[in-house]
């Protein structure tokens, strides 16, 4: 593959204990990468054709230092180390930080529209089985997210694909304002709900305070005794109010997660996704490192 930009010299960054493969697994950024024998090649967006790998305690990349930091999750290590949570959450979060310390947040704020394609297509379908297949086929034909959206609607038949062109056309109009205003405007876009908006804020705009409230988050929070009695955000309110002004905020999981977990909120959602896929959905309670705090663990 040829790069759309001149290839940059390789950079070597200390990996600071991250696991690159684990970090990329739950990230929508994975849709912009193709795995090779010992790493990844970027197949879409800025520095298309650059490579990224982890070896000998280093992240080695030709993607440039800034993009490498975002893709690898290294940008989040300082945030992860300084972030604090509400005291009532500290026991659970301390356990998560101990177990999942190598998992960081891979984001790409340099290619937000490319990330949006994967985020939007992930609605009610399997990310790894379907979305990665769709996006990789698209990126090998074009590096333009608008062209990819139009092409997808002609080639694939799923409802998400058919809706993508109308949704992505709305995006350039919603990048003004702080994160709550951007979120409100995002939810006003056709077919964009709160979960899609928050996934975009997290993975495309690098806002770690924005957790996408999906079934994995709700399920895991319930198992670990977090956010009892709260409900997921509702589109009709999210499109009308900024989070801090919403009359339902005190009953909303998303608002409470942001308030109580701060800059760890998006990371916790990512951990819940990985943990649910790795242990809970496979009924591996006997191997689960969170078993002692889980209300659903088998005896």
From TrEMBL:
Keyword 4Fe-4S: yes
Keyword vocabulary terms for this entry: 4Fe-4S, Iron, Iron-sulfur, Lyase, Metal-binding
GO molecular function, one term: lyase activity
Gene Ontology BP annotations: DNA repair
InterPro entries reported in the protein's UniProt record: DNA_glycosylase, HhH_base_excis_C
Keyword Cell division assigned: no
Classification via PANTHER family: A/G-SPECIFIC ADENINE GLYCOSYLASE/ENDONUCLEASE III
Full protein name: DNA lyase
Native organism: Infirmifilum lucidum
């Amino acid at each position: 593959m040829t790069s759309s930009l001149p290839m940059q010299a390789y950079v070597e960054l200390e990996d600071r204990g991250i696991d690159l493969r684990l970090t990329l697994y739950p990230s929508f950024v994975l849709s912009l990468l193709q795995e090779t024998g010992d790493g990844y090649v970027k197949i879409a967006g800025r520095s298309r054709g650059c490579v990224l790998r982890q070896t000998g305690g280093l992240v080695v990349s030709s993607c440039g230092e800034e993009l490498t930091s975002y893709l690898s999750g290294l940008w989040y290590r300082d945030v992860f180390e300084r972030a604090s949570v509400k005291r009532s959450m500290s026991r659970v979060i301390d356990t998560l930080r101990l177990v999942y310390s190598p998992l960081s947040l891979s984001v790409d704020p340099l290619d937000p529209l490319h990330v949006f394609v994967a985020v939007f297509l992930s609605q009610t379908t399997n990310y790894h089985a379907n979305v990665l297949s769709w996006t990789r086929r698209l990126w090998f034909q074009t590096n333009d997210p608008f062209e990819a959206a139009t092409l997808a609607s002609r080639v694939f038949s799923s409802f998400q694909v058919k809706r993508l062109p109308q949704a992505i056309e709305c995006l350039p109009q919603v990048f003004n304002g702080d994160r709550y205003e951007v979120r409100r405007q995002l939810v006003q876009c056709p077919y964009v709900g709160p979960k899609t908006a928050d996934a975009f804020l997290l993975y495309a705009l690098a806002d770690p305070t924005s957790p996408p409230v999906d079934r994995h988050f709700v399920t895991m929070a319930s198992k670990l005794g977090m956010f009892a009695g709260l409900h997921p955000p509702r589109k009709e309110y999210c499109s009308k109010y900024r989070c801090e002004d919403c009359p339902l905020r005190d009953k909303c999981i998303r608002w409470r997660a942001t308030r109580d977990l701060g800059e760890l909120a998006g990371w916790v959602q990512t951990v819940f996704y990985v943990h649910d896929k790795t242990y809970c959905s496979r009924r591996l309670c006997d191997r689960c490192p969170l078993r002692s705090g889980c209300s659903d663990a088998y005896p």
